[in-house]
Amino acid sequence: MARGRVSARLIGAVTAALVGSGLGAFALTPASAGASAPVTAAVTTTVVTKAAAASCATGKYQKQVEGYLKQLGGYGTVTVDGKQSPADCTAIVKFQKRFGIQPAKGLAGPTTYDVAKRLAATRTAACKAKKKGITFCIDLTNQTTWVMKNGAVHVKPTITRTGYKGYRTPAGTFTINKRTKKEWSDPYEVWLPYWQRFIGGRGFHQTTTYIHDKWRGSHGCVNLLQSDAQKYWSIGKIGMTVKVFGRRPGT
């Protein structure tokens, strides 16, 4: 190979590395640059290095998040070593998108850490669901919720936000007693999508604000991400059991 030139094979390798880093295709292909484009090896090395570094920043809670994602499963391959990699980045971004964490750029920051920790700490057996039928479970302590069917997990745990101080969501066993796809709240003058009431003026509904804003909380309702609210709505029926246990920290 002539000095200062890169073969089509090496160009292809550079392109593959860039794509794998999450930056997408790069204009170093034989079709656009010729079979032997005049790109120095030094420039190629610099580009690849920058591409790998730019794929995802390493967050303060990198190792902890890696550990929790490995425990939870379902987000791809992660290596628990505290060092960011393209695979780790992909898994973290997938996790962030699933649980509405913004921005979803793969940084293992405090919100991602908090959500992963809460989900990993959730024990579905603690709900003590009925052996027959559907039970909606709400863990106030971990601020998580899931659905059991005939004593087994039907919908995996997801995050929720319940009542903050002064508006605590009560613990107990209740039943869904009203369902409307879009309920108007007179006290707070806001629409509540996928409303499923289970006690007083409290029920499941899609959140109307950023669910990870801990300083806000609900006025006693069980806030859900849109996808989870829709899922719960598709399952719910009048008379189904809702079990609420634990206590939200700070209430």
* The level-1 CATH class of the largest domain: Mainly Beta
What is the CATH homologous superfamily assignment of the largest domain? L,D-transpeptidase catalytic domain-like
Strand order of the largest sheet: 3-2-1-9-4
Which fold name corresponds to the CATH topology of the largest domain? L,D-transpeptidase catalytic domain-like
Indicate the low-confidence ranges by residue numbers. Answer: 1-8, 13-53
**SS-based structural class?**
alpha+beta
CATH architecture designation of the largest domain: Beta Barrel
Spell the H/E element sequence: HHHHHHEEEEEEEEHE
Distance between the ends? 70 Å
Characterization of the model:
With 251 residues, the chain is α+β, with helices and mostly antiparallel strands. It folds into 3 domains: 8-54, no CATH class; 62-119; 125-245, L,D-transpeptidase catalytic domain-like (Beta Barrel), CATH 2.40.440.10. The chain contains 7 helices and 9 strands, in the order ααααααββββββββαβ. The strands form 2 sheets. Strands 3-2-1-9-4 form a 5-stranded mixed sheet, with helices on one face. A 4-stranded mixed sheet has the order 5-6-7-8, covered by helices on one side. The longest helix has 14 residues, at 41-54. The chain is globular, with a radius of gyration of 24 Å.
